[in-house]
Amino acid sequence: MTHLTYLEAAVVGLIQGVSELFPVSSLGHNVLIPALIGGSWAQDLDVAKAESPYLAFIVGLHVATAIALLIYFWRDWIRIIGGFLTSIWHREVRTRDQKLAWMIILATIPVGLVGLVAEHPFREIFGKPILAAVFLIVNGVILYCGEKFRPRASVQADQQVLADQEQAAEREGALVAGGSAHSHASGHQAVRREEIALAIQADERLARIGYGQAVLVGSAQILALLAGISRSGVTMVAGMTRGLSREDAARFAFLLATPVILAAGVLKIPDLLGPLGNGIQGQILLGSVLSGIGAYVSVRFLMRYFQTRTLTPFAIYCVVFGLLSVIYLGLIK
Fold it and tell me: N or C: which end of the chain has fewer CB within 10 A?
């Protein structure tokens, strides 16, 4: 791969990091944007080309995205991995962390198997810009319907999450007010304790949905093999249809995505370290750094966003951008 410029690497890296976690499809954007720009971008960044080095590049950026997710959820992953290890050691699945660990493992098996078998034909058949635009519209419809027809159990779960958050805030407020320290450090520690308590409460709720439901939610990630369909978006919608609150659905989607994104990126690293990566090590590094930064900022924003807001703005964006892309690529260009 000899024609990846630093500008192209920077744009692709940032798009990958942000749009992988926003429910708008990173692969769809990485297919569409070069085609819309045209010229050397369309030639250099063609994901549907046989043995595409561009695909190896953008999937390789998944490692940086996964690292950002691991950094954000590091306390949670320590608990989850600890639950898995104790489950193996004691040959039991009893605690919250043990259950959640096995739920994540079982829920990632379907997309892992399908990805290994079908990733190549999916890319060559459906990686065309016009199809990516169509699937982006479909993604928007899925997000809209997920909000419009959200079951009552999911709405009630939102209310329960809000009540838990208010109670946690009141407890921490009382601790700070009743303590001897009123310093900034004390307030920061209170916020950290509240975040940890809320994460544990969220995992308690997630562990109650059971293995079968977790597999159903995780299987929704298979749709993200289609350029234009968002992994986080369809997984969130699947979680909401199973009765999860919007915030818990987002949390579960990000936890499920982490091992899948990391595995996909690691599998492509040998390609980038081989002949495909000759002469573009600097571009790979730049794209990876921007991808990681974009992913970390995105997950921090989205975890707060979904506490009170909906998928609808993202649905509208996907439909509008997809329609405009179809018109431009099919009728004008």
Answer: C
